[in-house]
Fold each of these.
Amino acid sequence: MFLEKVGILCFGFVRPLFFYLLLLLPLFFAGGYWFYKSSALQEIENRCLEIIEKEKSSLDRKKRKERFLHRYAHADPFFLDKQIESLPFLQNERSRIKALMNHPASVNKNELSERFQFIESQKNRLMFTEGKISSAASLKETEEKQRFPVQMDANDLEKVLAMIEDIKVGNYEPLKEGPQFIITDFKLVKKETPLHFDTYEVEMDLIKREWINP
């Protein structure tokens, strides 16, 4: 009966709407507290995800660095001399010229002979001269400047770029024993030839990177 009297008294002095609002007040507090805790928990989860992503990114960078060093740690220091400067170019054109020179009905044999000798000569081989050398604790960089322009066809160009850029170009795969090369200057000019082959005059400068005791 006491509670009933208290209820009658409250309804007598307090408006019913305000009284019901007072009853809902604990629910508002509980909802606010739950929202605060939920937001705090979500923030903690986001921070954990950021830490995980940073850790994953750090591990990926470490793995890439390890693969990179493993790839170039034991590179052949004479790769440029042995593999790139020894490349013959314009072999398709050479074969065509040779066949024409041996054909009895062929004309302009002198012009063909001069072209053949050019293709066979050292004048159409890539040759580089060492320039400035920079050394750090475990890295040596050497500037390699091409001595004179050479002529290549598209097939030759793909092969050379695969070896220098260390990526697959066309049908050519890179050679695994090469050091890291960076092309610092590259010029490409289309040339007219006696047999109208697609031929390009190429000139480039490189930086050769070698890792010392990685």
Note: Residues 18 and 24 are 10 Å apart (CA to CA).
Amino acid sequence: MFLKTPEDGIRHLRKTPGGKGVIGRAMVQELAPLNFNEALFSARAIEHPWYRCQALASIVEAKISHRDALSILDESLAAAYSQREPNRIASVSRWPLRILTGLNENIARDHALRLVSIIKAESHGLRRLDGLAAIFVAVVSVRDIRELMLTEIHITADRCHGWRTERIMNNVV
């Protein structure tokens, strides 16, 4: 498909699940502080699981004391888990896991352990390291989870080489 103008590109993007997800996530982030229920309805309508996960997490972030915060984060993580690629699951889970870590360390620990087992199935070393780093960033404030993550990160990093490995490790540090 040949796109003649930037506007053609934007129109085309708005027709794809990913493009709709980007737009939906942005709408939810604007709505969340103003109208919780409308934001939740809009987030649940996002087809693409990556953007639905992020949108749901952003609602809780806007109103962390909401009585349904834990169940919405669980829904957000379910969207992440619905993806097929281990790296994508681990990477997007960073959003809700970071918030969950501040609300309930035990539930966060359970999800972190599940995510580690998922990302260990990633055959590509750099994608595995990137996913582990994403989980690490989310749980860095909890000592025992952080220690587990650092062990997994070091094991994986020792098997990887190149500038991307160094960049990921610099971010971890």
Note: The first helix runs from residue 6 to 13.
